[in-house]
Amino acid sequence: MLLNKYVDAKSGETLSLYSPHDESLVTDNIQVADQTDVEAAVVAARIAFKGEWSRFTAAQRTKVMMKFADLVDEHASEIAECEAKAMGQPINIATMVVGIVSAVFRYYAGWTDKLNGEQYPEQDGMYKIVQYDPIGVCAGIGAWNASPAFFAFKVAPAVAVGCTFIYKGSEKSPLGVLQFGELAKEAGFPPGVINIITGDGRAGSMLASHMDINKISFTGSVFAGKKVQEQAAKSNLKRVVLELGGKSPSLIFPDADMENALVHHSQNFLFNTGQACIAASRTFVHEDIAEKFIEQLKARFQQFTHTIGSPLDPKTFLGPLVDGKQFERVMQFLEIGKSEAELVTGGGRHGKSGWYIEPTIFLNPKDDARIYREEIFGPVITIRTFKTEEEAIELANDTSYGLSSCIFTSSASRALRIARQLDAGNVNINTWQTLSPNTPFGGYKQSGLGRECGKQGLMHYVEAKTITINMSV
Ligand code: NAD
């Protein structure tokens, strides 16, 4: 989508998408952007940034953003269907993800006239004003597990402050995001403000290393995120935000509400078939309640096997993994896990066709077990036991990641004491990680750099400018 029109890529190259449910062809016509296409998108975004878009008032930006949100809601079922077909996300979950898009656009639509800057009264003969300028032409690259939401987390704050955007979704789930191009045009965004390109890591890399892009926000693996940061540094030192992987801990204490903990570690852990960066896949349960907890969690995981089905069926809760490659990767982890830990339930393929995996629990992984250390990104949870609060905190923080974390206890003081000590961008007490438009989301350590959502998410799309006035002249 370039200058509000769908155009074929100049490369002449296309990608095919196959249904993860039954491996049937979804489309063989996903355009692959090359350097010429990226160049055209950057030029369009630069012209729009300096042109008509720069003359839009805050109220006008709010109006088009609100209209866009309404249009997304109107077309939610079509967009959700695109995700269900391309990456196997169950239709109810995909619809919920589309709801995040309109909520985030509405939230940031309210910010267009609220970034008021600061002023410092004359002290030393100088009067100072700090103003926030839009950073310029921005780019975004997304993962596949909630594509529409990643588009919103990046594009909405950028356009709220007057930036323009080039977005590349994942090559595994590009269809839902492509619908946004038509809706952005209908909402009244001028040509060049929101540009969408398709392609794989090569196109992402062209964006990361481009000399005329001022900022890039990336959602994906640590491996590719590091490459993006490297390319940004080697090119024009564009600003970088990274939203990367996780291997989040959850701590369950004997005074926790058992039913609540079980719901969160079954239904909510298995949400999106465990393909969630925020999934607390390292569970630590106090030894006094471990036996009961594990037995009941096993029963719930087995019950969830009955919710496996076609992504387009509204009764389905557990869909397939995104594609054959991800399926092979998770299957490999399951095999490795059998020699690294005790298999409690699951551990294999579900059915004979489609990329379905049984919900799986491993108990007592070795300290250096790959299933315990590496992000699996599937319906696979590991459980260890602990004796003391200190031990639980140490185990929780013993990871290179730091995205999310959960604490289950009825003691508020214990929860807050532990929250302070966890190295994670998000701590959830007696609940699971949820995303809200008004609070910052992101990771400590190798889970990322910077934050999305909330005011912090907005501030990544502006540069601070200090204006100093000599009052004696
Ligand atoms: P990935 O890193 O393979 O791909 C993500 C995106 O980066 C894709 O659009 C891909 O085309 C692009 N890409 C690949 N190589 C690139 C390169 N060298 N330069 C620029 N772009 C490149 O990740 P994935 O498999 O799509 O997604 C799964 C990962 O994403 C998991 O690690 C998961 O935890 C993480 N994730 C993080 C968040 C978060 O908000 N923290 C959210 C969702 C997913």
From TrEMBL:
<feature type="active site">
    <location>
        <position position="243"/>
    </location>
</feature>
<dbReference type="InterPro" id="IPR015590">
    <property type="entry name" value="Aldehyde_DH_dom"/>
</dbReference>
<dbReference type="InterPro" id="IPR016163">
    <property type="entry name" value="Ald_DH_C"/>
</dbReference>
<dbReference type="InterPro" id="IPR029510">
    <property type="entry name" value="Ald_DH_CS_GLU"/>
</dbReference>
<dbReference type="GO" id="GO:0004029">
    <property type="term" value="F:aldehyde dehydrogenase (NAD+) activity"/>
</dbReference>
<dbReference type="InterPro" id="IPR016160">
    <property type="entry name" value="Ald_DH_CS_CYS"/>
</dbReference>
<feature type="domain" description="Aldehyde dehydrogenase">
    <location>
        <begin position="6"/>
        <end position="467"/>
    </location>
</feature>
<comment type="similarity">
    <text>Belongs to the aldehyde dehydrogenase family.</text>
</comment>
<keyword id="KW-0560">Oxidoreductase</keyword>
<protein>
    <recommendedName>
        <fullName>aldehyde dehydrogenase (NAD(+))</fullName>
        <ecNumber>1.2.1.3</ecNumber>
    </recommendedName>
</protein>
<dbReference type="InterPro" id="IPR016161">
    <property type="entry name" value="Ald_DH/histidinol_DH"/>
</dbReference>
<dbReference type="Pfam" id="PF00171">
    <property type="entry name" value="Aldedh"/>
</dbReference>
<dbReference type="InterPro" id="IPR016162">
    <property type="entry name" value="Ald_DH_N"/>
</dbReference>
